[in-house]
Amino acid sequence: MTVAAEGGAARVRPPGPISRIKQSYNKHWYAWAMVAPVVLVLIVLVLVPLVRGIYLTFTDATSDNVGRTIGVNHIPDTFKWVGFDHYQEILSGGDGQFWPHFVWTIVWTVVCVTLHYSIGLSLAMMLNRKLRGRTFYRVVLILPWAVPTFVTVFSWRLILADDGGILNSALGALHLPEPGWLSDTFWQRVAAIGVNTWVGVPFMMLSLLGGLQSVPAELYEAAEMDGATPWQRFRHITLPSLRSVSSTVILLGTIWTFNQFVVIFLLFGATGGEDAQILITWAYRLGFGQMPRDYAGSATYGVLVLSMLLVFATFYRRWQARGEQGGLR
Amino acid sequence: MRRGIAATALVAALALAATACGGDDSGSGKSDGPVTITWWDTSNATNEAPNYKALIAKFEKANPTVKVKYVNVPFDTAQNKFTTAAGSKGAPDVLRSDVGWTPGFVKSGFLAPLDGSPAVTDTSAIDQTLVKQAQVDGKTYGVPLVTDTLGLLWNKDLLKKAGFDKAPTTLDELKAVSKAVADKTDADGFWLHADAYYLMPYLYGEGTDMVDAAAKKITINDAAAVKAVTEAKSLLSAPGVHKLDATANKYANMQDAFNNGKVAMIVQGPWELTNIYKGKAFTDKANLGISAVPAGSTGTAGAPLGGHNLVAYAGQDAAHLKASEKFIGYMTSAASQTEITTKNGTLPTRTDAVTPAVKALPGVSEFQALLANGKARPALPEYSSLYADLATNYVKILQGKDSVQSGLDATAKSYKKLVPTFSD
User: Fold this and answer.
1) What is the rounded CA–CA span in Å between residue A237 and residue A289?
2) Cβ separation of A49 and B391 shorter than 8 Å?
């Protein structure tokens, strides 16, 4: 080992970036070799399309002007660079779609995640007690998660059908108003939230149940001895003990719900429910659900959604870290 | 650069949690041995598909060097699926394509011209409007397989109970009959299908269209179109007309209601005939009345002339193309069309396919008489794209979320993006 003499003119300098990589390569070449295929696949499958997609947002590409070769027919690219036009049009509300869908997406995410978490937590707490047939209840409550989503959503579509749906038939029999669950904007949104809650609760319940089981029973016993009410025990023992589980599932739940494509797409069909579309289903409609396909517009929506989620995740993580530090004091 | 589509798709897929992927079924036949071509059929999978498969079997027997792989693709997703598949692996060699898709597909370079090939044998027997509808710049890209138009279908029994033995011919009569049916029976009089294609008769009834392709003008928000949509909307508030259905199931709901005698009149095309005759209300086939869609204020009834062509994908190699052309020629021949008509109740495109037996089929001759009112679509590549935005805004107008004028103005604004060279 050649280490410069202490106190000498040549102080120990941290190695430069190149030599550091070289060093690390010499030492860990096998690790580099191992990850190379994965890195390559990631570059091909994620990075290249991402860069290409971002590039497309600065053009006016549609399915009509993107070049292609079909047999003897060669059609050249004819789309052109338009700079920030798409961002400007979308963010200024010029397309008349972004902001309404944005507001609804936020409402949708907040309401859904709140319902997921609170219903999931209460079910988890119920199942965490020692009660007869606990396994049976667990299986029943996990079922909505085990059933393929499209089956769930199509079943709900039958239940919620405006005419002759089970729900409206029941409401009609009770002489209650029969809302248009699948045709009226407000009720479409209610229906979408309802179905997504149904689909999302089991995951929350399972995760929180796992968290609850790791809370030592002694804590509750001690609190009870000190005369803590059930609410106080919930607030001061259950919630703090679940903090790490909660923060993760809420972050995941938020991202999943924000991008919950299947429920909305299947519930209202490929062309229906325009006002109940969230950003992600709207981006799909722009890019794949219409003729000609608006690749540039769709990609712009995609990039905007991606950046929103990145910003959200960063702030959420930071906020969590601060909360945990605060908790230590 | 050509990877653009795939790259965009991937980026979108990044953001979108799930996208359905089409199956990969490229017709890769060896040069020796039989050539396998893939056919995407968009007909009804339960009623019509078996009869097409039977024809394929006959074709394969007559042409041992060609095998046909039959794939049924739902009509409402076919245009999108074909667009995705074209230009990459998995596109079919032959497609049953809506007549309205042809100009757009040609512009995109998806279709192979068929002139002088065994696909186009004798066009003199084919209705010339249909032949023209399959041509772009003088080249033939599709061979008409079936044709159709919209008509007013009515339940004779229900109308008789309401005191009518004839179908209404104007919108006012339609309202009167609807009211009488609802008053005297427990069925509704009329069901308005809230879809752009089914709005066309009302537009034609006022002498207008979505765009005037010849004059390069967007006409969807002119006075005549506003009148047409106002008329259509007024039907909904008329007594005896079924309340608006704007759900994703609206088409099936309408069809169920009609087939089971819960509604007396609908506007529909001949492609539903086999289904209707299976319905509870039409076990006696004579109970179905077929007449022209009620006329608008101009006094003339009009309906879009639809139908399907067989088209060949431009991306196949010479051997496949030859097989495809043979197949298209066979399927659109007079004998095949007679058989299709007899079994499926759809309308043939060749006059020599109309045998006395075909004429005697229930529903067919009535619908054939209506074809004279049929209006062909202009050869505008963007024309079939015009329906989508109109459908959305039409539903909003019918729901009362938007006024007729402002809803149609919004449609006109989005048309400006599709056909930028057209004047307002």
Assistant:
1) 50
2) no
